[in-house]
Amino acid sequence: MMNTYKSAYFTASFFILFLLGITSANAQEKTLQLEDLKKKALQYSRSIKNDSLLIKRAEFVKQEAFHNYFPEVSASAFAVQAFDYLVPEIPVYLPNGIENLYTVSAAATQAVYAGGKIRIGNKLAQLQLETRKIGHETAVDSVMLNTELKFWQLIQLQEQQNVLAAGKTYVNELLKQQQDLLDAGLISKSQMLQVKVEKSNILTNELELSNLRKIALLDLALYVGMPFDTTMVATSTVTKDNFSASILNANLNIDLANNNLYQLSQKQVNAAQLQVKNEKSNLLPKVAVGINVAKAGTFNDAFNMDIQPIAFGTLTLPISAFWGKEKKRIQQREIDLKIAENKLLDVEDQLTKYITKNWYDLQTTNKRIQFAKDKLNFATENLEAQRDNYNNGLNNLSDLLDARRTKEEADAGLVNAIANYKQKEATYLYSINQIDIPALDK
């Protein structure tokens, strides 16, 4: 009987440990890390998928433009069957008459010179492909930035919850102390009620923060394409103790020539320049050569013509284009070019200001972290002093509760400062094309 109990106890213990192992594994699966979220976003983002499709489309456009270098080949056939003779009988020469007729022909035409249109068309197609690739890189950077911003917003709310939980623990301990003092008749009931009001405020803030965290978590889940689960928790190795602002050791980096946002505007200028050349090509002569092969005859062999090859050449001079609509189109394209150049200068100014602002925002938030740490140290010391004074009867309960709220605000201030710094850091790295992009698992 004893062995049976031991066996049952061993089986139950093993089963409990197995369940705990599963629970622990599930808990790990619900941990959200920034790099994993970025990978999910890269695989899920519709904007990235659409940009990939636009690149494929631009590749087909380039292939289409390249085919303009080759001759155009066409074939045609024509047949007629009359209800009466098309040509009546002619003794000796056409004894059977002609009541049907067919022709078969094939032609190949090669443009020798088209005013540069073919070359310009291929340059435009290549430019479009390059623009799409830059746009794809920009879309990837943008998705990485938004993922980081949403992640740090969630971290910020979670840390604020931790601050509030610590405050609730502190108030619960204080509430227990007040209850003991009230039972001993050492304090009035009003002091007990003061602590209860303080706890009610904490519970209200706790509920509000919980809902805000769920909304932020939902926003992040929808953005990276993962199922929404309120038990998921974002985790980061960055804390107030190991926080580093090493990026500020470098100098401000404004390299517009290699900046994707600047290059996109530059490509628009290049495209406008090619459009001007394309319109001007309409004023130039066009030269083409070709060969045509034809055969004609009748189905009743009334007559048959042997295959006749013909070589030909064409020269087109667009005389009226020098004063007609073609000239007006050139003027329109030249205006478009000036607009694109002005926009490029505006982008240069705006981007320089944007990068510089992000750099100074980064410095400002780093200073705020230092100030927040100092404020937290002062608030922590003040709370300890106020608690000692209260326990020794040197101050009242209101001073202690005020000190506790100041400590909570200082904790939250440091949390906000660190999260804000990480968001500003991501924004700055995005503006200089250096935001971290994880490699996808093969």
TrEMBL record:
Pfam annotation, one family: OEP
Query: Which species is this record about?
Result: Winogradskyella rapida
Q: Where in the cell is it found?
A: Cell outer membrane
Entry keywords, A to Z: Cell outer membrane, Coiled coil, Membrane, Signal, Transmembrane, Transmembrane beta strand, Transport
Signal peptide range in chain numbering: 1-27
Q: Please state what the protein is called.
A: TolC family protein
Q: Does the keyword rRNA processing apply?
A: no
Q: Which InterPro entries match?
A: OMP_efflux, TolC-like
What's the domain of life for this entry? Bacteria
**Sequence similarity:** Belongs to the outer membrane factor (OMF) (TC 1.B.17) family.
Please list the coiled coil stretches: 330-400
